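Hi P.,

Sorry for the delay on this. The queue was packed all week, but I finally got your sequence through. Input first:
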Amino acid sequence: MLPSRKLLYDNDIRFIAAASHWPQELWAKPSLCAQWTNHDVLAHLALGYQASPAEMGLAWARHGGSFDRANAALAQRLARQRTPSELLAQLASAMSNPRGVGRVFPRRLLLGDHVIHELDIRFAAGLESAAGPAQLVAVLTTQVQLPNPFIPSRTWARGLALRADDIGWTHGAGPGVRGDAAHLASVLAGRPWALRHLSGDGVDLLRKRLA
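Then the structure:
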């Protein structure tokens, strides 16, 4: 498997190239990430490479210690300040010169964040996944192996036999859940919308865990 840093870089280059051609009206539409527009999601991706610990700590305190509310507030504020084109340029620049938390955040988790949030935009807009097989393998493997303080994917996956049919990825034993890698990764990231694209006798159990 390629290093996470390389997988992340290649993924972001591909995403920026594709997103630069998306119509302006797409950015104002809601994403699959609750209460975030596609514009907000893009701002979040740009912010992840350069937010300062002090900025994040202040937002966390202002929102009662809720990481989710602080994260949303920072992304939505940046979205109000920058157009999608400006955010794409900011993301491209920050990739090679990360600052603040962007310098220390684990690349395995950041890759998952970027792949999943692009899927939030694409699936909400009726677009297909464009994530590479190597990136999807890395994201799924991280989801089921690495504890994540923000999304308990590993807990949701425990005791299930998971299979991504399109890339040949498998994990675990137990009731089965199968489908395309992008839909499986989206579900394990807490997006129950994609459950409709999965099959197997473990889907109902996975649905209950996400509820």
